[in-house]
Amino acid sequence: AAGQEPSSKQQWLDWTVKIQSLAQAGLHYGRDRFDLERYQELRDIAAAMMAAQAELPLAKVKDLFCNETGYQTPKIDTRAAIFQEDKILLVRESTGKWSLPGGWCDVDQSVADNTVKEVKEEAGLDVAITRVIAIDDWRRHNRCNNPYGIIKIFSLCKVLGGSFQPNIETTETAYFSEQELPQNIALEKNSLDQIHRCFAAHRTPDWKTTMD
């Protein structure tokens, strides 16, 4: 509704996600025909609620939000923190925004393999993971623009070789100091706090992985 506080809107989104996940589980495990009809109706209501709250077309919400079967789990997003001296590598996306190299974890990839793959695709670099910096629930850290849960895994990486080549996802790469980060950060992919934590992990030999 107009004038809703962001926290109130997020509460409604959280409730909607819960309803959808319960409906999805019911459709998977249910056997009674009438129960299945009720679970499907609940799923349709959840999709309509999400479309209204997220201000997205209903068809798009159903495609994103109701496209799976079985027990619903969050999606995994991997992000790589790569440093040159005391500057962090960011890639400029085709949208013009800057982010840490990364993306959805493919179903046939481990978190480590996917992190390495995404860096190669977006930044042209061959890397090795040295430690996990953070495992974040994006609802607590990022600008939310997807109707499902996401777990973001940030890893510190060292460069083994390679060089950047423009591609369909990214137009350039650059290293930035912590005091000179670009203005147009893709906050849904990496918040300023998450980038600052990457700097802290880079500077702290005994860094402990943060998780929430």
Short description:
This protein is of the alpha+beta class and 212 residues long. It has 5 helices and 8 strands, in the order H-H-H-E-E-E-E-H-E-E-E-H-E. It has helices at residues 6-29, 33-54, 58-65, 111-123, 192-203; strands at 75-84, 87-93, 98-99, 102-104, 125-137, 150-162, 170-176, 210-211.
For the record, what CATH class of the largest domain applies?
Alpha Beta
Separation of the first and last Cα atoms: 29 Å
Shape: elongated
Query: What is the SS-derived class?
Result: alpha+beta
Number of helices: 5
Binned, the helix content reads 25-40%
Estimated radius of gyration: 19 Å
Query: What is the name of the CATH topology of the largest domain?
Result: Nucleoside Triphosphate Pyrophosphohydrolase
Average pLDDT works out at 86
Count of folded domains: 2
- How many strands in all? 8
Please tell me about this protein's structure.
This protein has 212 residues and is of the alpha+beta class. It folds into 2 domains: 6-65, no CATH class; 75-211, Nucleoside Triphosphate Pyrophosphohydrolase. It is built from 5 helices and 8 strands, in the order H-H-H-E-E-E-E-H-E-E-E-H-E. The chain has helices at residues 6-29, 33-54, 58-65, 111-123, 192-203, and strands at 75-84, 87-93, 98-99, 102-104, 125-137, 150-162, 170-176, 210-211. Strands 1, 2, 3, 4, 5, 6, 7 and 8 form an 8-stranded mixed β-sheet that branches. Strand 2 (87-93) and strand 3 form a beta hairpin. Helix 1 (6-29) packs antiparallel against helix 2 and helix 2 (33-54) packs across helix 3 (58-65). It is elongated, with a radius of gyration of 19 Å. Residues 1-5 have low confidence and may be disordered.
